[in-house]
Automatic annotation (TrEMBL):
<keyword id="KW-0067">ATP-binding</keyword>
<keyword id="KW-0378">Hydrolase</keyword>
<feature type="domain" description="ATPase dynein-related AAA">
    <location>
        <begin position="34"/>
        <end position="185"/>
    </location>
</feature>
<dbReference type="InterPro" id="IPR050764">
    <property type="entry name" value="CbbQ/NirQ/NorQ/GpvN"/>
</dbReference>
<protein>
    <recommendedName>
        <fullName>ATPase dynein-related AAA domain-containing protein</fullName>
    </recommendedName>
</protein>
<dbReference type="InterPro" id="IPR027417">
    <property type="entry name" value="P-loop_NTPase"/>
</dbReference>
<keyword id="KW-0547">Nucleotide-binding</keyword>
<dbReference type="Pfam" id="PF07728">
    <property type="entry name" value="AAA_5"/>
</dbReference>
<keyword id="KW-0963">Cytoplasm</keyword>
<dbReference type="InterPro" id="IPR013462">
    <property type="entry name" value="Gas-vesicle_GvpN"/>
</dbReference>
<dbReference type="InterPro" id="IPR011704">
    <property type="entry name" value="ATPase_dyneun-rel_AAA"/>
</dbReference>
Length: 304
């Protein structure tokens, strides 16, 4: 696992519980799917579980243009081999052979060697492409049809595991639901983290004090709660990370009276909070943010 990511994970109680259940399911041969809104930790949790499996990790990022060749591999040109034999000086024998060289695709490599595959945002890929996963999961073989490969299929290594992630807000209107594939995995729904877990993550990522981190998290969470009761979109931990990073870097004061800090919060939050509202009038969202900002930072003068 990537050293940077290993350092970054905050293994709060929800992460630990989720990880131990996920490991149990994967070890019994069932793929696991983390789903939930943006920023709740689906990818981070997938990496953490993968690390616990102690196998090499490969990552696939779902996208519209993904093809079977990306997953299985392809012949990517020719390798030329020239053999010159002039053992007897006057007789020169030349032999030239051309061989197609095969570049293994991500899925082929993972399945063959028993790696852990993280398939992030898999619903962004076309269902026809994802159909390859049906036999990998059910029959434990990877069919190599259409790949010009000599073998017809490759057997799935017993250490191979897959963790899928997706965001349900993206399902609508992208592709038809991938029911056959979904039916073969255990889907675990992740929700927004507890405030103390978010505070720990924020402190670790931005190196601000616990007290300041707690205030920023409470502020963002208060606005999120307003969105959740109305719309589907809401600001998450990433917005809090942006606020904390810039507040620290620009040496602002964590106070409702610091106009620069207030403007920073508005810039970061107006768009995501308004997306979560059902009304059109943006000035209502602006006054909501200003109001919550005052509640969270009113009168305070914090030293970082
Ligand atoms: N347990 C954790 N420890 C440390 N950082 C975390 C943890 N959970 C989430 N994060 C951080 O929060 C942010 C969002 O996490 P992540 O990318 O895993 O969410 P996601 O649900 O996959 O989001 P998206 O759907 O937008 O891809 C990242 O900066 C990530 O590093």
């Amino acid at each position: 696992m990537n050293k940077q990511l290993e350092k970054e994970i905050v293994a709060h109680s929800k992460v630990e519980a989720l990880t131990s259940r996920t490991l149990e399911y994967l070890k019994n041969g069932f793929p696991v799917h983390f789903t939930g809104p943006t920023g709740v930790g689906k990818t981070s949790n997938a990496f953490y579980v993968a690390k616990c499996l102690e196998r090499p990790v490969v990552v696939l990022q779902g996208h519209e243009e993904m093809t079977n060749a990306d997953l299985l591999g392809d012949f990517n040109g020719y390798t030329k081999k020239l053999l010159v034999d002039n053992y007897i000086r006057s007789v020169v024998k030349k032999e030239e052979t051309m061989k197609e060289s095969f570049q293994e695709g991500v899925l082929f490599e993972a399945v063959k060697n028993g790696y852990t595959l993280i398939y992030d945002e898999f619903t962004r890929s076309k269902p026809e492409t994802n159909n390859l996963f049906l036999s990998v999961i059910e029959e434990r073989i990877l069919p190599l049809y259409g790949s010009k490969h000599e073998e017809k299929w490759v057997k799935v290594h017993e250490d191979f595991s897959i963790i899928f992630t997706s965001n349900p807000a993206e399902y609508a209107g992208v592709h038809k639901t991938q029911d056959a594939l979904m039916d073969r995995m255990i889907t675990l729904e992740l929700d927004y983290m507890e405030k103390n877990a978010e505070t720990a993550i924020l402190t670790q990522k931005t190196d601000i004090s616990d007290e300041d981190a707690e205030k920023i998290i409470h502020f963002v969470a208060a606005l999120r709660d307003k969105c959740l009761s109305k719309g589907k979109q809401a600001p998450g931990i990433r917005a809090a990370i942006m606020i904390a990073t810039l507040y620290k870097q620009k040496d602002m004061t964590l106070s409702a009276e610091d106009e620069e800090f207030k403007q920073l919060c508005i810039d970061i939050l107006l768009h995501p909070v308004h997306k979560g509202m059902e009304y059109k009038d943006k000035s209502r969202t602006l006054s909501l943010i200003t109001q919550e900002h005052k509640k969270a930072f009113g009168g305070n003068t914090s030293g970082k």
